[in-house]
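Budget justification, computational time. The allocation requested in the original proposal was used primarily to generate structure tokens for proteins on the priority list. As evidence of use, we reproduce two of the resulting records. The first is shown immediately below.
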Amino acid sequence: MDAPSSIHDLIKALMDLEKPFPARLLYQFSDMPSEDRQLLASTWQSIPVVRRRAILQDLIELFEHDNLLMFEEIGRIALGDYDADCQVSGISLLLEAEDPKLVPVFLKLLADGDKTEFVRAAAANALGFYVHLGELEELNPDIHHEIEDALLLAYAQDPSDLVQRRALESLGYSSREEVAPLLRFASALDSDEWLESALFAMGRSADNQWEPLVLEQLDHENPEVRGQAIHAAGELALSAARARLLRELDREEDEYVRSELIWALSQIGGEGIEEKFEQLLAKTDNDEEANLLEEALDMLNFTNDVVDFELMEVGLDHDHDLDNEDDEYDEQPEDDEDGNDEDDEYDELKAFNDEEWLRYIDEDEDDLDGSLDDSYTLEDPDDEEDL
């Protein structure tokens, strides 16, 4: 068994372009100790850029297959890279960092006109996570509104369509009244890319006002748009789409669209879906689709349990209302002295019930901590002083 490699072995391998980088060393980037991170950060820019780009892409792919790995430290180092591609990769490695101290960094990158459109777009995309946190009341409201304002400004003023669209997608999480008209406008443009972004944002909105528009695009000729409409139907759990999506699963050949169909149906749940998934699983020779179907079946069980629970709650509430109505009805006098009968009082009862890095890579972590605004913290529901 090979002895564990040191940070010096890792840096030596990164510098040596004559040899392929050993895949086993990729895991050493995960959950890197502070001392190792500081040493890597101090030598990062001296590593050939082609190697830096390749390593970051390898780490992104590795994380997609094993999200128990933690590549936040190398992501933070990459944010201070001079190379735009490396910066974009660094942002990608930090998408799930859940660190509000990253917010001012992402805001700065978004507003920096000297950055490439790809860096600005990646920053806009990363800010969507924090819009979502704000909607869940897990982020300081002032920071939440600052992010929304920055995204609205980028949507209105950034010269790049890509940045504008990423800003709109991140605003999909927002309940700000300005957002819905922007989504309607974007969906009406003669552009598949804008329609795709609008649908993506609609799915994030958790707002069923978008149901008619989403259903209308389920048969779009462009598979990218069609896939986003299907994804939005799943995000919104549109039961009205179930039968159509099941039929499409029998004839859809595009792999991307098929994967969205399977995912969306697992989110919607209901009759006929489990049987369809099991039939497909029994006959598929595509390992990737088989894995997707197995995951979808697990999710479907959860979805159906949630739906059953909600229906049971509705039934209990209905029975409770009926019991209350019976009790009140039983208490009505058959006739009163003024000659009002049961029907009059029953009518009254019925009427009543109808109602990103500056210098993240300062070689000293103390300098880093001092450069970030302490107000960028997650909300603690038990600590009123943070509000």
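The second record produced under the same allocation is shown here.
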Amino acid sequence: MRIGVNTRFLLPQKLEGLGWYTYEILQRIVKLMPEHDFVFFFDRPYDEKFIFSSNITPVVINPPARHPILWYLWFEHALPKAMKKQKVDVFFSPDGYLSLKTNIPTVLSIHDLAFEVFPKQIPFLVAKYYTFFTPKFAKKAAQIVAVSNSTKNDLIRFYGIEEEKITVVSNGCSAQFNPVPSNIKEEIKNKWTEGHPFFIFIGAMHPRKNIEGIFKAFDLFKTKTGLPHKMLIAGRMAWGTASINTTFETLQFKKDIVFTAHSERDLLNNLLGSAEVLVYPSFYEGFGLPILEAFHCGVPVITANNSSMPEVAGDAALLVEANEVESITDSMIKIVENEQLRKELIDKGHQQKLLFSWDKAAEKIAGILQKTANSNGVFQ
């Protein structure tokens, strides 16, 4: 069997969210299915490190797809021709896109429907593309991999997708996230927060991430406690941040908020592992990977009680109402002032993290690919 894979997020210089998902799943699947051939479809020159085994054929097809018009050209014109030429039997797309102009059965990973929940929080043309094509992609797919029950429920609620067509396959956590030694913690604090303890948020500075709520909650924390803690924001600026900037300028303790756009895994591990608490009260998440990363680093978590976050957190985090600033602040104070609670959350996080792994995820998706092939008359 020849399995085609959309690998356009395996970027040579830098992997981000969808790139890491693609990387973690594919490096395992090709070894789990050594009897099958894989065709990796890139949209630009690739790095040899992504050719994980000898049963992979890399193919570069143009144009580089990083804009709605180019997405259309790549998926609806270039990709179908390339798949036909390569005699692909089954197609796997880990990033939520597929081709409507092929009858090759497709397994599609869908991570979230944030654009349906918050349509005004992404650029106009991108929103138009997503809202027009994503329901068509979901209906066209032979099988859908949803990264959480929350995403599965959204697919049913917004698009009426049949429940039996969706399999929940949770994300795992990179092996690079681990507890940080005390000497590294001191180095991180000395470099980033003037030696003071700090809270951390990890993710893009986007309205959906509730950055304004985090700012306000931290400001209130400082007012109520007078403690020397800082807030570290680890993530790049995203689209639609004008109101975030406006709120920041109104803060009494804005000098105690530190920004870093760095996203290298080793540095992120050290930043997260050196933090007192991960503060992650998003308005919506398809999965909420930083929660799991914090568990692996032995760091307590405050997160929101909406969408997928309670699934990932279980009873190992303090859950808050995302739009209630005082609730976030009170949870910050509880963890800082109650060492027993802090220890309990860390211990529960160690147990909760065991429910999620990339090995389990890859095994499930390999099974879905095989099942899809069999049900569509594709045999080895």
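A brief technical remark on that second record: The chain has a mean pLDDT of 94.
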